[in-house]
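hi! just following up on the protien thing from before. the input was this:
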Amino acid sequence: MKKGQRPPLGAFWAAFAAALACAAWPLLAPAPKTEFALAEAARLPVLEGGRVKPLDSFARNALLLIRGTQSLPDGRREMSATEWLLEAMFKPEAADTKKIFVIDDPDVLGLLGLQQSERRFAYWQLEGKRDEVGQQAQRAEKVESSRRSRFQNAVISLSRRLDLYEQVKNTIMVSGSSDPVQELAMFSEALPGALRAVHSPKAASVQDRAAMKALAELLERYRFLARAAAFRPLAPREGEPDDAWKSIGEAILQPNGRPPHPGLEAYAVMARAFRLGDASAFSSAVNEHLGWLASERPADARKARQEVLFNTAQPFISGMALYVAALLAVFAWWGTRRPWVAGAANGLFAGAVVVHTVGLVARVWLQGRPPVTNLYSSAVFVGWVAALLGLFAERIHRKGFAVAGGALLGFCTLLIAQHLSASGDTMEMMRAVLDSNFWLGTHVVTVTIGYGSTFLAGALGITWVLRRHFVSDPDPETTKALVSLAYGIVAFALLFSFIGTTLGGIWADQSWGRFWGWDPKENGALLIVLWNAFILHARFAGYARERGVMLMTVVGNIVTSLSWFGVNMLGIGLHSYGFMDKAFYWLLAFGVSQLLLVWLGFLPPRFWAVETD
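and the predicted 3d structure came back as:
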């Protein structure tokens, strides 16, 4: 394809439409037929982790933390996270037989007396050693995290997963209860007689004393429910503050003179119907409660429904697949030089960027927050910035380099985000250090744009190195366009990283009373600014030419990764809120790989193909 020539629009639009159709398929595909109203139950809003979310989100996050997946094989079918959650809450004796606990550590397996040939176990297999696991975990948690052994980390992880599972089992009804509806009726019947026995003990009848004894037993069960609940399913009623969500136990133990919360009976009926296999009664209870929520808490009900759609669509998973498809299409274009392949590559990449954008906007809408609130969202945003820059840069230099770099970075950052999602809810409430004022929101977004653009320049530098050694007769004009593109993106990265760092200083001055404190994160942000300025200055002053500039952009990948993730691993400073010790070796491997690429760039082009006498 000649310089400046546009790829065929037919191929572009066909690939673009195919990309969007593939991304939309999870929403358009018919839902699997189930006996119970699982789709409706998934939309029930609950309060957990400081935010209102649908039952579907809690179920996915809980199963992900416990098992590492968002679904569970059950014979020949796949059990959804919501179905697993309902079974764990309403029919725990069946859930206890599901092998959801992954245990790899041989010492932990030895502690539990389990065979090392297996790695997935059910709760009933671990229950006998539950107290011992808890004791070992308590001792391990007293040890500094950096000094813990492999066994100590493994036993802490297992204990926390067991805690979460046990909380889930005791959220709606005490594990072992047979009929929560009957229990609520007994509580209502026993309450008047018990009150008479308390206020007039001498005049109390035998029935009143029996009622007081029965009530005492029920109160103990409901106190346990109030302590053990994994989430609060009962929404505030009219006149109550928005954060007055209650657990089942709290609602029973804290009467306010009003009729019982309608959700109490609804969840009790759901539990009994699920245990008895009565799909009709279960559906009626779910739909009736959803109707009450739609009238009393319309905003929460609407947000829960929208978040379920977001969870079903999984736009970032689709985005990863489309970025890979676009990258492969670019390689095919370079190999065939056919214009229609170039159009297909651009169409797939544009579709991936649109899907990525929709996912990002949906997260912002659901959270009501800026796009960057934690490490997960920063990974999503960095990849989006790099991909969007690549999309626009390709319109200037139609060589495929910007598409390849943007697609590679989009895939890698979404893969990092997918790994980070294993730690739990990705829409968690903002940490205090990230939730203060306008200056912070603009600082985080702006400096993250600097991260993404610096990475894109580094990806183009890697492309230059690989092209130098794997293309037998590189076109000088194409090489010049690649260098020019990288130089322009470095200038863009310098602008946004400098503005973002300055805005961070303004925020720090308002929040902490000082503009600059040489915090590790501040130093890392400053280093990105200085490194990008160094590249531009070296090129402008003639100290670095084509090779020097491109290799310095590769080094920029190391600088940015250390500022992005490295400072969190130090565990010190005001910005160490995303500590991840497990990522140290991945970060080290990434840095080494970039240094190897720089070393490769210093070697003569295609040095292995040079003939010697």
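The chain has a mean pLDDT of 83.
The first helix runs from residue 9 to 28.
cheers
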